[in-house]
C-alpha cells in the first residue's frame, strides 16, 4: 500500500497535508482498495462548517458506501470538482488527483491528533 | 466457513475472499468494473460451486416435481432446463431454481446456496411412498459458469459441445474422459455455459484459464455476478424473492404453469390480487440505490415501497435499481414516471424503466 511519508493520517483512513495554509484531505490507498471502484463522492458545500470526527460527506463504490469524517474542525474552502465527472480518480490517484476537500482550519491545535505515516501503517495492521 | 474445490485457485488469482452463505468465496479479483468490462467483451469465469444440487429419482418423479414446483415439468424433454420457483402452501417463494431433465425418471435441481437445505426439506416432506428418492448431492458437485461473447470459443477448446446448442438446454459431455454436465444457462444475461463436475472442477478451472487467455478470459467474483444479474433484471432470493413474496408480485408468473395441474401454493395464487409490483428504475443522479431504501412518491410524498437491489451500471453509466411499489392514488406507476429514492436522508430522483436494463445477448439460433 502506498503511504507517502510527508502526509498525516487519521484512523478513518484519510490523509491530510498543508496546501498553502489550507488543509487538503483525501482517502488513503488502503481505503480506496477496500472500497473498490468509486462511483460517487458526495461532498459538502464550500463555506460549510465541519467538526472534527463528524461525517462531512460520503464515498460510494459499486458495493458499499462509507462516510468521510472531518480530520479537523473548520470551514470548507474548496472541493475537488473533478470527482463529479471522474470519481474513479479516488482509486487511480488517491493522494493526488483524487483529493476531496480543502479546509480552513479553525483550531491548529487539533492538527496534533493526526497520525504519522508510520503510526497509520501500524494502525492498519491491527484491523 | 466452507471452501469450494476451487478455493486455492481463487487465492492464486488474487481473489478477495468473503463469507457468502457460509462459504469463503471471492467477491472480486481485479475489481468489479474491470471484471465487467473484460467479461462483456471476452469472457468471465465464476465459481458457483456453493450452489446446491438435489437429485430426484423415481417412477413418478415427473408427477412429483410437477406438484412440488411451479414450472410445467410434464412438457420437458430429455436435455431440457427450466427455471422454476418452489413455493410454500401460502404461494410464497422458498427458492428459485433450475430443473434439468436427465430422463423421465431422473431430474437434477440446482438451488441457491443459501436455500438448498430448505428446498431439500420441502421436497423431502412431499415424498410419499417408496418409489421416489430425493438426495442432496451438493457436496459432490462443483460448478463453473463461463459467460460472455467468447464463452463458446473458449469452452470448445476443452469440451465438445454443439455450437448451436440452444439456450436452456444441456448435454452430457466429457472433460479429460470425465463426464460433465454442460448447460447453456447463466446469470449474466450474456451467452454462456454452466459446467457441473465432481472432482474434475479444479483441473477444468485451470485449463479454462489457460485456454481463455488469448480470448481475454478473466476470473469474476460474486460482486460482478450481482452487477450483471441486476443489469439483466434477474431476481435474487433474499432481495426480489423471499418467503413473503409470491411469483405474481415478483413479475414471475411466466414461471408458473398455466395447466390445471395442482401444485403447492396454487390455491393461494389463484385469485390472488397483487398489492405490490416489481419496478425497475434508473437514477437521475449518481448516488446508488440499495436494498431497504424507501421509494417515495414525487406527487404526494407518500412511501410507495422499497428498493430490493441496486448497483452502478457500467453499461448505462448510471446507478440502477429494482424494488416493490404499491399503487399511488389508486393507480400503478408507469414506465417513464419519476419517483424519489430516499438515500441517506435525501430525496434522489429516478425514472421508472422497463427490464432488462441491458439487452440480453443470450444465444438465439
Query: Helical segment tally of chain B?
Result: 8
Cα-to-Cα separation, first versus last residue of chain B? 42 Å
Lateral arrangement of strands in the main beta sheet of chain B: 10-11-12-9-3-13
Unreliably modeled segments of chain B: none
Describe the global form of chain A: globular
The strand line-up of the biggest sheet of chain A is 1-2-3-9-8-5
Oligomeric form of this entry? heterodimer
Q: Largest beta sheet of chain B, briefly?
A: 6 strands, mixed
What ranges of chain A have pLDDT less than 50 throughout 5 or more consecutive residues?
none
Residues in β-strands, percent of chain B: 25-35%
Helix content of chain B: 10-25%
Largest sheet of chain A: 6 strands, antiparallel
Write the layout of secondary structure elements.
The complex is a heterodimer of chains A (127) and B (365).
Chain A: E1 8-9, E2 14-19, E3 22-27, H1 29-35, E4 38-42, E5 49-50, E6 55-61, E7 65-69, E8 74-79, H2 82-85, H3 89-92, E9 101-105, H4 117-124
Antiparallel strand pairs in A: 1-2, 2-3, 3-9, 4-6, 5-8, 6-7, 8-9
Chain B: H1 7-12, E1 16-20, E2 23-28, H2 32-41, E3 43-47, E4 52-58, H3 61-68, E5 81-87, E6 93-103, E7 106-111, H4 116-126, E8 132-136, E9 142-147, H5 151-156, E10 170-175, E11 178-183, E12 192-197, H6 201-212, E13 217-220, H7 222-231, H8 266-269, E14 276-283, E15 294-297, E16 303-313, E17 318-326, E18 338-343, E19 346-353
Parallel strand pairs in B: 3-13
Antiparallel strand pairs in B: 1-2, 3-9, 4-7, 4-8, 5-6, 6-7, 9-12, 10-11, 11-12, 14-17, 14-19, 15-16, 15-18, 16-17, 18-19
